Structure formats: structure tokens, C-alpha cells
Please model this.
Amino acid sequence: MKTAQAFLLIIVLLFCTISCYRFYTLDVFYFEPETVDEYFQPEDIEDWYHIRWVIPDSLIEPVVLDAKGNKVYGFFVKAPDTIINPVTIIFSNGKDKNINRYWGWVEILWECGYNVFNYDYEGYGKSEGSPSDEACYRDKRKAVDYVRARNDVDLSRIVYMGLSMGTYVTVYGAADYVKPALVILESPPASSTALLKDSYLLDLPGSYVVDAADFDSEKRIANIGAPLFLMAGEDDDFVVFERNGEILFAKAKEPKELWLVHGATHTDIKEVVGYDVYRQKISDFVNTYLP
Model:
């Protein structure tokens, strides 16, 4: 009898451990926000952010959105004055830090001649609230609504772009909310299950690990309804291409374009190939469909 009770206790403890672990993995593994009182303060900028400060302050417009009572902060960067009817990029960040970390991408996109809207998810940077898959999707919807409501944006020339975790909300926005003209994904995970397993957290079914989190681009990618440009690092050991990007690319509908970069890892494609090449690849794709 005591043996049976002891065995039952072990089963209960194991179940509780797994239940706690699945929430821990999603919240801590996925979301690594860094809050700030103000953006672009020297003490918050790391050299490896590769910010060059090339955008004139006069073209950077601070934006505050309301997401279910939480203030969500972002910046709308206007294209250079010489550009007529520019493309507008809505750029969704990765899982760590805040806008400061991703400003290098904003600069490159601006140098391509685009408007760029970049925002922090709830709980990141100055944005209020706490991050979750639901909050990230909500923030994406608010970002899309804001950009589409501007009178200086051509609705037929809006592009969604996401990096790493930001590709989830990018695919969601295209498949489940408002279709853009184009979709650009950099280092995209296929799903929460694929990413968590890839990162050696626990070899359990996804339902045990993630508890039904809705980060799943694999189930949505066929419905984005826009030409796709997917780029990934061949040496990315965080989001392994063969188990993530390759699956997404196979399930995406034509037209689609793949750029697999030799020697690049998860977030260093632009540094590995050089900014000129990176800009040209994006520009070539965009110009093919939005001349």
C-alpha cells in the first residue's frame, strides 16, 4: 500500500513539474524584454546593435498606441523626401531587449527608401503591460491599424517584415488580419513546438511544453496571400533552418523566394553579407512586385 502511495505521489509531482515547466519555458524562453525610461540613451546602446545613426531626427516620429489599456510605443520613420509614394514596412522585433536592439534593421530599410514603422510589444522598452502570444498579436493589429490610418501611406504598398519571434506576428497579421502587399521573414521559427524542441529544452509533445500557445506560423503560412521572401542563416543553431524555415518555405504558396546565407547564424545575416548586399536583396524583391 505504501509503495502504491509513493508511486502516486511521484506521478503527481512529475505532472506538477511538467505543468510548471511548460509555462516557464514559454514566458522565460520566449520573452526577454528590457524596459527603458527613454529610447536611444547612450547607456542602453551596445556596440553589437550596429546602429549608425543615419536617420535624421526630423524624419523620426514617436508614436503611442493603445492596446487594451496599455500604452504601446513605437516610431514611424518617414522615407527620404526624394522618394515618391514610398513602400511602408511594418517591422516586428525579435524576442529580446526593445526597439534599441532592432534599430539597425530600421536604418537599413530606411536606406532602401521606405517608410518604416517599428514598435515594442507590451512589456518591452517603454510599452506597458506584459508580453504574451495574445499581447503580441494584439500589438500587431494595433500597428497595422495605425499605419493604415495614416494619410501619407499607400495601402497597396504596405509590407510586413519580422525577425525571429517577430515572424510569428508577421505571418499572423498577413494570414489572420489584413493582408499586406508582401511578406518578408528573417530567421523564422516554424512553431513554438519546433523551436522549443530545437533548443533542447525538453523532448515532449508540444502540448506539454507550450500549453497551446498560438505561436504557429506553420499552420498559417499557406494563407498569407502575398509574395514571400524568406531569409535564413545556414549556420543558425538556434532556429535550425531544416526544421523551421525549410518547412515554412515548402508550405508557403507561390510566388516565394528563399535566401539561405552561408556562414550566417540567427541575427547576423546583414553583417555576414554586408549591408549593401542585404539592402539590394530586399530592394530587388520589393521592386519585383512594387516597382
